[in-house]
Amino acid sequence: MIPAGRQDRRFPFIALEGTDGSGKSTLRISLAQALRQVASTVTEFGQHSWLDTDAARLIVGNRMARSNGNADAVVEAYLRDKRLHFEFNIKPALAVGPVLTDRYVLSDIVYHHVLHGVPMERISAAMTALRMPTPDVIVFVDTPPALAWTRIGTRNKELRPYERPDTLVQLYDAYDRAIQANLVPTRVLRFRNHEELSDSATQRLVASLLSQFPQLSHDREVPTDV
């Protein structure tokens, strides 16, 4: 994998990662609103590009447990989709402002491992071989699996096949191992989301991010811990 950013580029690529029910989507919305106070344009994207029909079909089938069981084909589809996502969506948006994505390559590594038994190091190596661009920073939304499961239960939507308490524990542990092993070589900020999201917590995260990218703000004092 290669860094998405360049030293002379003004705007950062920020990926929010975490298990289902972690609260990352809610955080992404709050974070985007806060960043718009210092950047006129902030672009938000989901996990996929959906620009390749065949890859999209495999990804959707995999998410709904309708895949053909060929893990290699599914992984290749995700890789192909990510390349397109960066090239045609993320990269152009970075020319005009910060970009936030709700999941990116770290989630691919973790979910393929937990749900399909694909070694995390193997997926990371495949991404490196393809020179997959990485975010400038990953915000890992650190939410205890039991709390994430409670939040999932409050949603007014049908559960996905893998949304179960035991799977959430496995996913949480896999995220931790992948981060510790630096399988996505970039800076990681842990956002401890153990209660209801507050404005003050979001502002602390924004301040910490601005400390990484002072070109966005030159006059704010920032904390060292999120």
Q: Would you kindly provide a brief summary of this structure?
A:
The chain is of the alpha/beta class. It has a single domain (2-48, 97-216), classed as 3-Layer(aba) Sandwich (Rossmann fold). The chain has 8 helices and 7 strands; from the N terminus they run ββαβααβααββααβα.
Question: How would you characterize the overall build of this protein?
Answer:
- The structure is a single chain.
- The protein has 226 residues and is of the alpha/beta class.
- It has one domain: Rossmann fold.
- The chain is built from 8 helices and 7 strands.
- It has helices at 24-35, 53-63, 71-94, 105-116, 120-129, 145-153, 165-180, 199-212; strands at 2-3, 13-17, 43-45, 99-102, 133-134, 137-142, 187-192.
- The strands form 2 sheets. Strands 3-4-2-6-7 form a 5-stranded parallel sheet, sandwiched between helices.
- Helix 1 (24-35) crosses helix 8, helix 4 crosses helix 7 and helix 6 crosses helix 7 (165-180).
- The relative contact order is 0.21.
User: In total, how many domains does the architecture comprise?
Assistant: 1
| Helical proportion, percent range | 40-55%
Shape: globular
The CATH superfamily bears the name P-loop containing nucleotide triphosphate hydrolases
Mean pLDDT, to the nearest integer, reads 88
- State the name of the first-level CATH class: Alpha Beta
- Low-pLDDT stretches are 218-226
Strand order in the sheet with the most strands? 3-4-2-6-7
Q: Which structural category do the helix and sheet elements fall into?
A: alpha/beta
Pfam families: Thymidylate_kin
Function: Phosphorylation of dTMP to form dTDP in both de novo and salvage pathways of dTTP synthesis.
Catalytic activity: dTMP + ATP = dTDP + ADP
GO molecular function, one term: ATP binding
